[in-house]
Amino acid sequence: MRKILGTTIASLALAASAIGLSAGSASASTYIPISLTTSHGVGVYSQATGNSAKYDSDLWASHGDSIVAICWVVGQQVGNDGDVWYKTSQVNYGAYGYSDYFNAPYTAWTFAPYVDGAAAFHNGLNRC
């Protein structure tokens, strides 16, 4: 699928916000666009562990890649970097100009410290 990154991410975030507001109650899910900010390659996994199947090629900040995170969980500990994983609904390959979407029943997971140093986790992304 080919999408224009900025417009797609902004549209998804706005749509998700509108849905959450119309529901009238707090939701455990949010849709937060996150640009990669670390030098690590970021795998896209089927579970919150690096031992699970990988869906796509690694993401890289240097390629302008990004994700859309829904929420976070405690998953596999990776070295001394932590154990926070983002439930991921979309990955965007900036250098190649396309996006992949993960909808129920399929879920994708990315390791938060490698995505953005776990900044979204520390700044209010909801727990799943």
Automatic annotation (TrEMBL):
Signal peptide: 1-28
Taxonomic superkingdom: Bacteria
Keyword tags: Signal
UniProt keyword Signal, yes or no: yes
Protein name: SH3 domain-containing protein
Organism: Streptacidiphilus monticola
